[in-house]
Amino acid sequence: MGEELAGRTRVEMVMATIRQRIAGRSLTPGARLPSVRGLAATLKLSTSTVVDAYERLVAEGAILARPGSGFYVANQAAPFALAEAGPKLDRAVDPFWISRQSLEAGESDLKPGCGWLPPSWLPGEAMRRGLRTLARADGPALADYGSPLGLPPLRQLISRRMGERGIEASPDQIMLADSGTQAIDLLCRFLLEPGDTVLVDDPCYFNFHALLRAHRAKIVGVPYTPHGPDIELFAQVVAEHRPRLYITNSAIHNPTGATLSPVTAHRLLKLADQFDLVIIEDDIFADFEYTPAPRLAVFDGLERVIHIGSFSKTLSASARCGFIAAKPEWVDGLTDLKIATAFGGGRLTAELVLNVLNDGSYRKHMETLRQRLSRAMGEVSARLKGLGIMPWLEPPAGMFLWCRLPDGVDAADVARAALERKIVLAPGNAFSLSQSATNFMRFNVSQMLDRRVFEVLEEVLGRLRK
């Protein structure tokens, strides 16, 4: 171990020496570096240490290797200016705004507008154990393409978990995807032609809008209530527009936190049957529930409903793994489509997810997480009310509060002002097809436990109400 550490230190010393010479212009772009043997003799190091250092510098792009000639300084790109990394405050507040700001935020930035949990809330140790187990796996698990359907043991586990919620789906009716987003993308490729109409909730998850526009679909919206879509308006819209698809969350609706009622589910499925409507039920928040809410897939038996999920919210957004459950003939067509667009399955990630889900700690992790979110929901709700920001409803579970800002305050103005203070918020109209959520905002309670969020909100609201 000591020799390995020493070896790494010597390699880093060589790399630092070369970087200093490049920065000091004693080695200019295009200049030939000292030979491996020559530098090794000068620094009194082994040639293997210098070779390792040079190879790492090549990988960084700092130098180039020319076989038979040696190593040369690369043509350096223009220096990166920190000013260029700043948030684009003048960018339109559209469905990409929240995603871009959240994904590009610095480590010290606060992200109450994002859609995921802080890393400290996720099962990091279980993931590390899973990675250690995977490191000992045989060659095929580490190197081969995976089956396009996905890792069989993980599909069996998902089938069993779905059965616990009353959804009957055999492993052969389940196909793994890289994420919930990829699952919807594959389904849109499979089911839609450009110009087809797709029905969404208003408000709904903003990336539904972006994804559907990428598929050149016509999007229509139906207002969402605390019990599901407004069923009378839903009936009018499907009769008028004859949409091909309806995409929704049945449980822990994003962004509202609402839950579909059994009565609404029953009436919705009757309309789907009457108008030949296919439903994509996005269920990525399933494990956050205390008591399972009604699922359209339960009532429908996967005839018109396609059920999707992922593990990004409860395990890791870095380990991208989702799934699609559908009737067999659709899974067969989706498998061909997946081969055409991705070839094989992501076996390495699937093996990791399987290891973690089989870890006896996962159930305990979710119990703790649900309790933690419940406490955060109560605390954040109370503090927001103190600022005059009122929750649309008190969700039974999950991480989101859909809130109305004080009268006359535009959520986009609040979001832009907060971004100047390194706080990313989620203004309501990004979720609303009709742009009727001007003074609404979605808050992620797990990302709001820093007092700076409320200090900035109070300051910005005070300034905008003057």
From TrEMBL:
Q: Where is the HTH gntR-type domain?
A: 8-76
Q: Which UniProt keywords apply?
A: DNA-binding, Pyridoxal phosphate, Transcription, Transcription regulation
Query: Where would one find coiled-coil regions in this protein?
Result: none
Q: Does the keyword Nucleus apply?
A: no
Query: What PROSITE patterns has UniProt attached to this entry?
Result: HTH_GNTR (PS50949)
Q: Which GO terms describe its molecular function?
A: DNA binding; DNA-binding transcription factor activity; pyridoxal phosphate binding
| SMART domains linked to this entry | HTH_GNTR (SM00345)
Q: Which family does it belong to?
A: In the C-terminal section; belongs to the class-I pyridoxal-phosphate-dependent aminotransferase family.
Q: What is this protein called?
A: DNA-binding transcriptional MocR family regulator
